[in-house]
């Protein structure tokens, strides 16, 4: 019944997607092709236009991301089962867990492409998980975490407050470019998914979030070979400024802090 709002043909198959933390997703196969349906479990319909228009902008500029499908009322977001819902194109490939330097290089180049393509996107959204959120959310976490974790958290917050980011280039960032959000198809990137942490923020922060996941070793140090490959891939399209080079170690810590806070939140709340 819901698909009648779209020009996507008739339903042939509906398959739940097990991965994902924030939302509920399904593969939808119709007589017109394969798509991805998302039910938004936390976001309201009013929260979603930025993400839908951003993905449309990027897809129209050749960036490999899901393209939202408009319904008969020319809207990207509808309602299904009492929740905001959208349907987007389905990208080829699957994520990889064990990544190679070549895949890191390709991901670095992809991220630089996203940062350049995002420069022409007119809408703006401040990062809801930025430094202000770090401070507020930390106060909610402190009573729940271990004393050594609390000490580390407060120490890192104090360190980050000493470093302003005013001199660093800003623009559209993905904000969550972990390995599970990049799909590889026959050895090449087939697409990027999950833009629901995207926003306007420091570009270097986005590189740091990505590097911390793609280049991390089991002992929590960064693999130099994979990291060098990723940065070379990024720099082939967009070079770091002098200020970014100086702030790179600080930004790696900022990215780690943000992800750690998020993981603590999932664990304790």
How would you describe this protein?
- The protein is an alpha+beta fold.
- The protein contains 7 helices and 9 strands.
- Strands 1-2-3-5-4 form a 5-stranded antiparallel sheet, with no helix packed on it.
- The longest helix is centred in the last third of the chain and has 27 residues, at 242-268.
- It is globular, with a radius of gyration of 19 Å.
Write a compact overview of the structure shown.
The protein is of the alpha+beta class and 269 residues long.
**Overall average residue pLDDT:** 96
User: What gap, in angstroms, lies between the N and C termini?
Assistant: 35 Å
User: Which runs of at least 5 residues are low in confidence (pLDDT < 50)?
Assistant: none
Radius of gyration: 19 Å
Overall structural class, as computed from helix and strand content, comes to alpha+beta
Extended strand count: 9
* Strand adjacency order, main sheet: 1-2-3-5-4
N-to-C SSE series?
EEEHEEHHHEEEEHHH
Oligomer: single chain
How much strand?
15-25%
Task: Give the % helix.
Answer: 25-40%
Shape: globular
Profile the largest sheet. Answer: 5 strands, antiparallel
Counting H and I runs of at least 4 residues, what is the number of helices? 7
């Amino acid at each position: 019944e819901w698909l009648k709002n779209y020009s996507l043909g008739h339903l042939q198959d509906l398959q739940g997607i097990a991965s994902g933390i924030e939302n509920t997703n399904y593969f939808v196969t119709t007589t017109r092709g394969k798509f991805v349906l998302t039910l938004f479990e936390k976001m309201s319909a009013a929260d979603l236009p930025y993400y839908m228009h951003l993905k449309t902008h990027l897809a129209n500029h050749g960036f490999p991301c899901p393209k939202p499908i408009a319904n008969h009322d020319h809207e990207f977001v509808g309602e299904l089962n009492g929740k905001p819902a959208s349907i987007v194109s389905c990208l080829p490939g699957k994520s990889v867990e064990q990544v190679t330097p070549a895949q890191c290089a390709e991901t670095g180049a992809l991220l630089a492409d996203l940062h350049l393509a995002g420069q022409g996107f007119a809408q703006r959204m401040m990062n809801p998980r930025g430094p202000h959120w770090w401070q507020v959310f930390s106060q909610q976490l402190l009573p729940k975490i271990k004393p050594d974790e609390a000490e580390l958290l407060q120490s890192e917050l104090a360190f980050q407050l000493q470093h302003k980011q005013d001199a660093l280039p800003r623009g559209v960032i993905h904000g969550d470019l972990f390995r599970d959000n990049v799909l590889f198809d026959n050895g090449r990137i087939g697409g990027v998914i999950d833009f629901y942490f995207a926003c306007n923020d420091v570009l270097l922060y986005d590189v740091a979030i990505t590097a911390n996941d793609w280049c991390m070793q089991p002992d929590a140090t960064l693999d130099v070979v994979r990291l060098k490959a990723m940065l070379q891939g990024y720099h082939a399209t967009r070079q770091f400024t002098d200020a970014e080079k100086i702030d790179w170690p600080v930004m790696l810590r900022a990215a780690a802090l943000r992800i750690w806070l998020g993981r603590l939140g999932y664990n304790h709340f």
